[in-house]
Amino acid sequence: MKKTISRTIVYLLLVIGALTMLLPFFWMVSTSFKTGFEALQTPPTWLPKKLQITNWISAWKAAPFATYLLNSAVVSFVTTIGQIITAIMAAFAFAKMNFFGKKTLFTILLATMMVPGEMLIIPNFVTLSQIHLVNTYGALIIPWLASFFAVFTLRQSFASVPDQLYYAAKLDGASDWKFLWQILVPNAKSSITAIGLLQIIGSWNSFMWPLIVTNTDKMRTLPVGLQAFSSDSGVNYPELMAASTFVILPMVILYLFLNKYVVAGISGGGIKG
Amino acid sequence: MMNNQKPTWKQTLKGWLYVLPMLIIVAIFSLYPIVSSLAMSFYTQYNFFTNQVMALGFDNFKYLWEDPLFHSAVANTLIFVVGVVPLEIIISLTVAVLLNQIKVLAGFFRTIYFLPFVTSIVAISMVWKWIYNKDAGLLNYFLSFVGIHPIDWLNDPTWALPALIILAIWKSLGFNIMLFLVALNNVDKRLYSAATLDGANAWNRFLHVTVPMISPMTFLIAVNAVIGSFKVFDEIFSLFGGQAGPGNAAMTVVFYLYRMFYEQNKYGIAAAAGVVLFFMILIVTLLQTWFSKKHVHY
Q: ABC transmembrane type-1 domain: which residues (chain A) (predicted)?
């Protein structure tokens, strides 16, 4: 009896918490289907009286969201692929190879993780202006093609593959390159997927850097475009909620499908700085 | 083993070749800028187009020392950190403990709690902006049930920071819950059985078994949460439409850096603010590490 009561309380608290987490999402979608008049009504209506998609269409047309979407997709995809490739190679060297300067280099790179990225924005902006890359894909992509965080996480996963496997492959005449891509990478598939997913999500949602290095509609990513749209559109909340849904939906869908990798990535990789 | 042998030149060349692609990017966009922004904080006259430095000195730091706006940026950042981190940890630990006790629907709940983590902060800030709306917002509607008069969350300087703190806590819970769940899972179940045999009730088991056993994770989460909170920017920018809140009520160090750099082109001062941010984070992290040596059980 006592157990049933406490179990009920646990579930009750969890449901209340879950509703709090979901409420903003629900409110966003619900508002996006309301008329401007209904949205401002007090008391508010929970569900729109009539489901109408005019806000979605007018929001989509009011700003070049198709361009933003394409930019976000290209930038997230390319940076993720780049980061994975550079991380796989470097993590292999740090986990399995033996070379002069390895420890020193690793320590220096580890120390850079302590520095807040916001501090690096000014010199990076200067660098990119000098090579005339501001407001291009180059500025959005190149600085993010490698991340020591990814190297660090992947190194742990590579290190857990027994060294014997490496020697056996060498005895069989396999080159390092072949061993890396044919044995090590398939072995670490789930951590690579997890790192990739976290990077896609991070890149899709990143704001400050794209805000600084883009200055035309043509180059804006979704979050920056949405921000610009919100200051242009003023207070049309139903349209703004429809536009926010465009931005949020792709990552939510990706997460719902691949959520076990995201969970594994966070629990296994420790922490993302 | 191979890793203990002295490396040959051939191995060294090969190792560096594998590291090279990552290293080029990291060197240009992380290592160089660290040195460069440190140097830039001492540039008092600087032409960014030609990258020419005409004068050096401590004037940028002096400017920060005397600028009341920077003082309030530091104060607001500290208030934000203190407002967010403890609540974030208490709430996420509570939810994680609750989640850890159930089997049915545990995965479902975990998915929901984690949802804000994958969400664009800009987009969800738009939603919160709407929830915080004075006249038609959901929050004031709820508060009206308990007789609280409408609060102008985003335009009243008193409420700007609390509004920001609520949003930040809501957004960060899922990630910390996930980490706490990992730690809770790793606690040896026999410890609980032993404690129960000794007559400990649920609260005592939590206090004397759970809390010490997960303290390394709590430390990790605390450090990470503090660092993250020190760098708050995106949610301010979107919540207050590109401003730092009404009358700069939500001005933080990173927002100050952004304003000096991007809006006013005062690169030296912005870089100096970045250096101050770095040392603030460093000092707090060192304090936390020192504290953890005494209280974390490894």
A: 69-258
